[in-house]
Amino acid sequence: MENCIFCKIIDKQIPSSIVYEDENMLCFKDINPAAPVHLLLIPKVHFDSLAHAQLEHETLLGKMMLKVPQIAAEAGLTNGFKTQINTGKGGGQEVFHLHIHIMGRPA
Ligand code: AMP
Ligand code: ZN
């Protein structure tokens, strides 16, 4: 989507520190980390937030959730991690392309 910073990251128009990528999703380091490890996992298809997810995104969202622990383990978060999805302005969302925060401290 035009003018979406995360779509630009997907298209490599904006640099990012990518830790995982496949045909469905991209994971990169948060530019302003709130934890020693702070990653953002995003779908390659644009939708604004969890509140904008449709039935057609069901499989994609499932794949993303199942990928989270793999990415976390590869980032050294073998002792556990936090996930967060901010939804809407009232939920603290600032970038309106769905993303899952993955945060923690390596064991
Ligand atoms: P949220 O408040 O859930 O919308 O979170 C947006 C997150 O995106 C924040 O933690 C920002 O630090 C992060 N962010 C914004 N721009 C970039 C960027 N260009 N590269 C990496 N992370 C970014
Ligand atoms: Zn986007």
UniProtKB/TrEMBL annotation:
This is HIT-like protein hinT. InterPro entries: Histidine_triad_CS (IPR019808), Histidine_triad_HIT (IPR001310), HIT-like (IPR011146), HIT-like_sf (IPR036265). A motif (Histidine triad motif) lies at residues 97-101. The active site is at H99 (tele-amp-histidine intermediate). One of its GO terms (molecular function) is catalytic activity. PANTHER family: HISTIDINE TRIAD HIT PROTEIN. It comes from the Bacteria. It comes from Alysiella crassa.
